[in-house]
Amino acid sequence: MSAQDEKKKSMDIIGRKNWFFAISLFVLIPGTIALLVWGLNLSIDFTGGSRLTLSFNNTVINNQVQVVDRVLRETKIKIASIEKSNKLIFVRTSPMDQNQNNKFISDLSKEFRDVKEQEFETIGPVIGQETTLNALKAVGIASILIILYITWSFRQVPKPASSVKFGVCAIIALIHDVLVVVGVFAILGHFLKVEVGSLFVTAILTVIGFSVHDTIVVFDRIRENLKKMGSSNFSKTVNESIIQTIARSLNTSLTVVLVLIALLLFGGESIRWFVIALLIGIISGTYSSIFNASPLLVLWHELSNKTKEIKKQEIL
Amino acid sequence: MKSPRLLFFFIIFLTIAAAIINLPSFGILSFTKPLSFKQGLDLAGGTSLTLKADMKDILEIQRGKALEAVKTVIERRTNYFGVSEPIVQTAIGRDDYRVIVELPGVDINQAKNIIGTTAQLSFWESQGAENAKTASPSAYPLGVIEVLGLNAKKTNLSGRDLQDTSVGFDINTGKPQVQLKFTSEGAKKFADITQRNVNKIVAIVLDEQVLEAPRVNQEILTGDAVITGGFTTQSAKQLSRSLNAGALPVPLTYLQQHGVDATLGSASLLKSLFAGGAGVVIIIIFMIVLYGRLGIIASIALILYVLFVLSIFKLSSITSYAITLTLSGIAGFILSIGMAVDANILIFERMKEEKRLGRLWHESLELGFSRAWTSIRDSNVSSLITSVVLYQYGTGAVRGFALTLAIGVLISMFSAIVVTRTLLRLIYR
Predict the structure, then answer these.
(1) Within a 13 Å sphere around the CA of B206, how many CA atoms are in the beta-carbon half?
(2) Backbone angles phi, psi at B87, to 5 degrees
(3) Tens digits of per-residue pLDDT, B5-17?
(4) Which of B181, B196, B297, B415 is most buried (most C-beta within 10 Å)?
(5) CA separation (Å) from A212 to A148, A165, A285, B162?
(6) Model's pTM, two decimal places?
(7) Long-range contacts for A232-236 (Cβ within 8 Å, ≥24 apart)?
């Protein structure tokens, strides 16, 4: 075996596709179990909580906001937001019962003599069921439309390859990426108490947008090579296409990852987990477009060939 | 696209325009309305309103549901007004039902306009005297007895039967009017009502007050109707939007209204802007290291991308599709900077490939663009599909996200393809 054959063999991605599927499952299975068992650690954005209106004799200054923040943290109550408005402070927290509320107010009175609690309300979620359902519905509809678009756009791939498979595999890769992020956050939520709120929804939507984007770069090359070489040796064509495009797939993701790392380092605490969710999603998106979406195409192609042969034999 | 020189001047023109828009204050040009970024609650604060829902007509067990419906309607109304990223929350106080609405960048009066009135529309007719009930006058909406007498009766047609409404102008008087389009079922009800009331009066009641009491001339089968209730253009638009968003299931009264300050200090905004700057610098270094002179051109295109998108954000503040900048929105924009060079990488890699096949520099330039195009087109079209669907079905922050995504995709295609190619063609002619 020559050195070049050796090199070619080492780049046989399709031949090792089961290994790559296994790596995906290695992340997906614990994540999915965590999601089913523990669920996501939903923030007050989703669950609702309590809202307090505190009034003071004079216009509130930033120092007072910090003291309110500190006292709340000492009473182990999670804070969603603290807003100041003239002589008032509005606080949104995780659900608080009457005892916790009384204790908080008496603690706070030690700091400020003039503080009064004007209102104590139970508030519903910012992201209600309707918003969540609408977003899910939209993602579902978008997925179907993307499948239709890819099916149309890849209609010229020579038989027996079929363009519908390209669309479906792109969406499977998308589901993979979303599940990876959601699963990892279910695990993080259980062990590190990481909460998911409205920012997380945005992160997931971004991952969805990016995932298909990345997959199409590889698929486009497969389409081009199939037109040139025909689909007689489907898996070889796919493998070559992956190898031809792997550099640009990695480079396009690398620019995004670099920007995210800049955001992680300098962007401040309030968006840290948002950026981490995006990083996981982008890395998963790159992985799935190279190692899942195209190998899946080959797997599907081989399976349908087999069933055709079996049918042929039955007829004979 | 045959003349790179013409395109080049077009790009220069756009760049100058974008630079002017982005300059903090440009002394010579005075806009009637100053352009500024519209900032979200977290960055700029806004107005906080607490509304109390009047639940006296609602059964105890259904009150929670009614409150949820109020929240949904208010969210929809803010959407119709193009206010993105509002916070609408239900709140249950000691013994009353409330909705807290926080809107970024509007004052208290504007906020009240947006939330609007209950917008419960009903249609009343007078029934034959023989069936007349002796109800107390207080049970009737204001003005009904005056136009229909004590025999007035509420019909089964209401705002729920509306499919859509719009604002139009009366051909004869030129006055604004609200045009109603009923659903097919509503149209049937309306036809029945007009049929049995020919030459009689039908009163249109909005929020317990007669808005208009026209005489029916003939049966109306088309399912269209107009209200000409002495509107101004402004009030007609507001009613139309409120009707389109649906009526509030219960009347609301204002309990409190406050201006609220930003929840995040300017420090966190500066931090993300710094991160964004660092991101741009890193990408420029990355592109120049990987692609040399081509990388410099891509970097120029990237800087133009940033300028163009910021101008669109700023310009959008005077339209009804204002893009609200929140901290997460800014992070998303910074992320889009990383994605904006995607197309350039695809093109440049393709050019490298064609050159390896022994083509001339000039040829590989053109082939790089034309052969990379299908992948750029398909990947961006799928992103656009996602953003259009999210915009259509999403609410609140999801919509804002969709709009920003679409702008990022379109502008990056322009900067990475048109700008880069024009510059390359001019340089290497």
Answers:
(1) 18
(2) -115, 120
(3) 788 888 888 888 8
(4) B415
(5) 13, 14, 8, 39
(6) 0.81
(7) A234/A161, A234/A298, A234/A301, A235/A14, A235/A298, A235/A301, A235/A302, A236/A14
